[in-house]
Amino acid sequence: MKFVRNKSLLYELKYISYKFKPHKLLLLFFTIIAGIVVSLDGAQAFFTAKDSPVPERFSFLKQSSNARAIAIAIIAAPSLLIWSSNRDTQEENQNISKITERITLPFFEEDLNKFLDSLRIKFSLSNSVRIYIMMPIRTKFGQWHLKVITNTKNYDNNEKDILLKFDEGFIGYAFQGINYDSRRAPKYIPTTNSNDLPANYKHLSQNNKDLVRCDNKCYVVVPIFDKAFLNSLFIVDTNDPNDLIVLNTPELHREIFNWIGNEPILLSLIWRLKHHGR
Amino acid sequence: MGASGKISESNDYELREIVQDELGTTFVYDRVEDNIDETSALNKTPITASAKKASNSWVYWVIFLLLSVTITSRTSLKNNYGSKQPIDPPPVRLPRYTP
Question: What ipTM, to 2 d.p.?
Answer without folding.
Answer: 0.75
